[in-house]
Every structure is written in structure tokens, then in C-alpha cells.
């Protein structure tokens, strides 16, 4: 029987959040010294990453970051891909907790946030408001609301102080990752951290998210099997986003549906991905499983959370279109030309490194070469991609960071691969991409 969520206040001031991280760092440092001394006394040579990543320290790190919410929690989600299959197991253990629901705000803190957003006495303007959230994530929590007109809404309320704490939170989490020793000292995290901060500021801007939700809804309206909520402007503010409430179930319940239903909906999700990159040039870049919800009665998928929507530059979209077409025809010189144009590799990289990048790209497109449907459910592709990526990084010292738009495109595609595997589906990827080949 699952335990009810613990309501914990969100530390909103920079000093309060910094003190939490400082306290965490002190405890970890003390643990490292203690464990390292014990190993030396027993004649063992201590390894820093082993001393940092003890079970107790992993618990400390994850609990503290989850209680902070905001960028501290979101950064873990951004690099975790919703699965340990693409990460070293030690880092996966730290991030797994950060993919779960956050601890919701206490009622008093929630009341204060809503009083500031809607004005005191807002209860009288609604027929019903559920203080118990129906979801609690990294930047905000969602509540069910019924208006006086009888409209049922989902209202996302942002945790206080989250927007102002993003930059310092990202730097603090990066320090913990560096301390873990899981990444080489030569790997420059700064470009990724800078982009992570920009992305998180976008996600904390609920006015922007509402606009993106409307744009995305209009862009994919020709898809019969997808439903996107509509913004309810009257109750939306910079820190509160109100939208139509869609009755739906977690995407995992789709595993109970017939194979044909699962295969069809997964194929449509891949078609939508290709349209995002090549037609909309607007991609919902967060592949979190919670952003897909199944509607059993209509056999549709509800698409949620548009804070992570990104516009794709024309040059990037054109580069990936060339890469897709050349990859489908096994035109590897054309693939190399596209990869260089996109920035997935550089001419200064060695022939061996470039060959490995191209080989990994071809591996990622394995489903394109399948005669008919590719069995994602029984494929070990993700494990092989992880092995290839680790070998490229650690054995060939390839720590090149591609353009951030490419990172988010790969992240979305990787998330779809994970979902296709999780739902045990078979998809004809060439058919899904046929419009663009």
C-alpha cells in the first residue's frame, strides 16, 4: 500500500535553498572523509566516486533535491531520460527519485500563492477547488477546479520562488554531479548548464507555456488521435496556468490494450515527432512519461505540459531532413555531410571518431532498415546505444557537445524509443517517416 505524499514547504528564498545545498555538501564531505579513512586503515585505496555514491549519500542527495523542487529537481529530469538504460547505473540511482512526483506544498503555502495570483476571496468565484493536488512535479503542482459555469479545469500552480532560484539551483546540482566523479574533468558542462538555465526559465514562464500550448494545439489539430488542452485565460497568470481538464489515465495502462491499438498510437507518436521537426519546427522536448496520458473511451492520447516547447531553427530542421533521407538510403557520405552541418561532429575530429559517430547514428536508425514493423518491445537497441555512447566518450575521448537544439531533438526521440519499448510495440518507422523520405 503506497504512502500518502508528505506536504513539505518549498524553500523560496535563495538563502534557504543555498543553506539546504550547503548542509547536504557538508554531510557528504563528512561521509567521504569518514569512509575514506576507514578504507585507508583497512589497506584499501579509496576511489572518490565510490566514497561519494554510498547508499546513504545517494539517499541524501535525492531527498534534498526532491524537497527543493524547481531547477534542482528538473535538472535531474532533464538529463535522466526517464530510464536508467542510457546512463551509468550510479548516476541513474541518483536521478531515479527525481523522476517521481514531488512533495506537494502545504495548504497554507498554496493558499498564499493563490491569494497573490487571484486575490483574496477567490474561493467565492469557484464552485469547487481541490486542495489535494492531482499531480505534483518539479516546478508546480496541479489542482482540479470547477468554475461557477460548470467547466472542469486543471490548474497548475507554480512553487514560490522557483523562477528566482533557477540559476543558483543549476549551479548547485552541477557541483554535486562534478563531485560525484562520474564525468571526466575535461568535459565542459558550462554550455549545457547555460542552456539548461534558459530552458528552465522558459518552463517557469506560464504565460509563455500557455502561448506554446495554443500554438501546439493548432499545429497538430489534424491528428485525430491526439488531444491538447485549451488555455483558460480568465484564471491564468504568470504563476498559475489554467486549462481544460482532460479525463485520462497514465500512459502505462495502454499496455492492457490490444497490440493493434498500441502499435497504431505509437506509430502516430512517431509521425507527430517527424512533423514537429520538419513541419511545425516546434517540438515538445520533454519526453517524460507523465506528459502522455491515455483516454481509453476514445482511444486517444492526451498531450500535456508545453513549458518545454522549443522552436527548431530552419538550418537544424533542414540538416536533420537530409540526415534522415541519406540514412534511409544508406548514403553514408551524405549522412556525414549532414552530421557536420548540424554540428553532431566537427571536421577537427579524427577519422576514427567521425566513423564512430556515424556508426552510432546508423545504429540509432536501426528501425529504418527493418523490413516492416520493428519490434521495440523485444529490442536491446537502447542498451547497445548506451554501450556505443560510453565507448565513444570514454575510450575515444569524444566529449563534443552538439548544438542544444540537436540535444533536445535526440532527447525527444530517445524518449519515444523508451515509450515504444515500455508499451511493447511494433512500429514500421519507415512508414511513419514516409511523408518525409
Provide a descriptive summary of the structure in words:
There is one protein chain. It contains 16 helices and 13 strands. It is of the alpha+beta class and 437 residues long. Strands 1, 2, 3, 4 and 6 form a five-stranded antiparallel β-sheet that branches. A four-stranded mixed β-sheet has the order 5-10-9-7, with no helix packed on it. A two-stranded antiparallel ribbon has the order 8-11. A hairpin with a 3-residue loop joins strand 2 and strand 3. The model is unreliable at 28-53 and 77-87 (pLDDT under 50).
Low-confidence stretches: 28-53, 77-87
The count of strands amounts to: 13
Structural class, judged by helices and strands?
Answer: alpha+beta
The end-to-end distance, rounded to whole angstroms, is 50 Å
Helix content: 40-55%
Globally, the shape reads globular
Radius of gyration: 23 Å
- Discrete helix count: 16
Into which percentage range does the β-strand content fall? 5-15%
Major sheet size, sense and barrel closure = 5 strands, antiparallel
